[in-house]
Design goal:
Blueprint (H helix, E strand, L loop, with lengths): L1 E8 L5 E8 L2 H14 L3 E7 L1 E8 L6 E7 L2 H10 L3 E7 L10 H16 L4 H11 L3 H15 L4 H6 L2 H4 L1 H11 L4 H57 L6 H15 L1 H19 L2 H11 L6 H19 L7 H10 L3 H17 L4 H8 L4 H13 L2 H50 L7
Antiparallel strand pairs: 1-2, 1-3, 4-5, 4-6
């Protein structure tokens, strides 16, 4: 989160100042320009809050160093002087970089907070304790800002959502909601459970898809290097002496000549498709396409689909308080799945049906065509018996158990496939090398 301070001038010459927070510096500038244009002001200055390193001393004490975020050097000097310190130096932090904290750090913060809340410790004390103990600088500074704003009486939900770049959209929403709800401990525990499941699923998915993909890609590069560079150096020695080559050796040498002569084409075929796919996935249309067909992919698709339903149900259970207030929990639960297609179907099909036509939850979910028949059936039963909240929790636990078990089997199956692929490639290379070794030049 970037904090900006702007100074502007009214038509009568009066100077006005203001502060805003935005995701990036450019977003902040756009917001400031909109404010200036709306109120017909003349923009004079925009300052970004940055980190300064200071060195101070008091009386005969030894000098001490510290850090302070401020809009200008003069602001830091003035504040320290007011506190009775002799300012020795104040300098900008040369390379200020605030990367997003690892998910493990955020999970740790949420879990510890939930445990301390369960022990009836006041929230302000929890924040103070964690701010002093956290090692990640970005998260520590963010919590410090949040704690200061909450002490000043700021709205908790607005305060946390301002820092959604650090926490993530869903986590920021949940933590902000928790601070103003009457069920703070339960919401923190539910958020921790959600983060834990998402991290575990991401880790398992990497094991099932990304790691094998990288292994196969590296194996392909190794084979290309062998066939295109190492093998021809040996095989062409036989050609110099006009020795006839066995079939496997001759075929491999032909492939080698093609790779050498068409190296640029080979590079395009090997590297361009992954780059294009990664780029396309970063666009809204591409992300929507991958989100939709990832749930229909062979082997892994069913697991991704059911995990999305599990996440949706778990979040819906946490937020749902009655049929009269079901729209917002459904919207937030859809966003929590982090699947663009799932979210689109909920927001553009299910929710409009509930608002415009007065359709029930199960009917609207069925129309969205993103829930399994089992889920729709259970939601329908929950509506009829008035236990839809508990039904959501039961579905979440059921799909968690199923996906965890099946994902382990999928990972084992893929690992076997990768081992077999490596074995086949190694056997092929061994046969080619062995055939080359059997070439017996005729003596004249």
């Amino acid at each position: 989160m970037v904090e900006l301070k702007f100074t502007a001038q009214k038509a009568n010459g009066q100077i006005v100042t203001g502060n805003i927070a935005a995701g990036t510096y450019s977003e902040g500038k756009k917001q400031i320009k909109a404010i200036v244009e709306k109120h017909k002001l003349k923009l004079k200055l925009i300052q970004k809050k940055i980190t300064f390193i200071y060195k101070i001393k008091k009386g005969n004490e030894l000098p001490t160093k510290g850090e302070q975020r401020a809009y200008s050097k003069e602001e830091v000097v003035q504040a320290l002087t007011k506190m009775g310190y002799q300012v020795i130096s104040v300098n900008k932090y040369l390379f200020e970089w605030d990367p997003k904290p690892p998910q493990q750090e955020i999970l740790s913060f949420v879990k510890i907070s939930a445990e301390l809340l369960e022990q009836k410790l006041p929230y302000s004390e929890i924040m103070t304790l964690l701010v002093n103990d956290l090692e990640n600088k970005t998260l520590r500074e963010t919590l410090k800002q949040i704690n200061n704003e909450l002490k000043k009486g700021a709205d908790s939900q607005t305060t946390f959502i301002k820092h959604e770049r650090v926490f993530g959209k869903f986590t920021a929403y949940m933590l902000g909601l928790a601070a103003k709800s009457g069920n703070m401990t339960e919401i923190y525990k539910a958020t921790a459970k959600f983060l834990e499941r998402r991290m575990q699923f991401s880790k398992d998915l990497r094991s099932a898809l990304i790691t094998p993909a990288i292994t196969m890609f590296v194996l392909l590069l190794a084979v290309l290097f062998y066939v295109g560079y190492i093998f021809p150096e040996t095989a062409k020695l036989f050609l110099k002496f006009d020795i006839p080559l066995p079939p496997l050796t001759a075929a491999t040498l032909s492939i080698s000549d093609f790779l050498i002569n068409q190296w640029f084409l080979v590079l395009i075929v090997v590297f361009v498709p992954p780059i294009v796919l990664i780029w396309w996935n970063s666009t809204p249309n591409g992300n929507l396409f991958f989100s939709k067909y990832m749930m229909k992919a062979p082997i892994i698709g069913g697991l991704v689909h059911k995990t999305n339903i599990e996440v949706f149900c778990r979040v819906f259970y946490t937020l749902y308080s009655g049929s009269a207030e079901s729209i917002e929990p459904i919207r937030i639960a859809a966003e929590a799945t982090d699947n663009a297609y799932f979210e689109q179907q909920i927001k553009k099909v299910a929710i409009p049906m509930m608002i415009r036509k007065g359709a029930g939850i199960s009917e609207s979910f069925a129309a969205a065509k993103i829930f399994t028949d089992t889920a729709i059936s259970r939601f329908h039963s929950g509506e009829e018996t008035g236990t839809i909240k508990n039904t959501a929790l039961q579905l979440a636990n059921y799909y968690e158990s199923e996906t965890v078990f099946r994902l382990k089997n999928v990972i084992e199956m893929i690992q076997v496939f990768i081992a077999m692929a490596i074995m086949v490639v190694m056997i092929g290379l061994t046969l080619v090398s062995a055939e080359t070794a059997t070439i017996n030049p005729s003596v004249r």
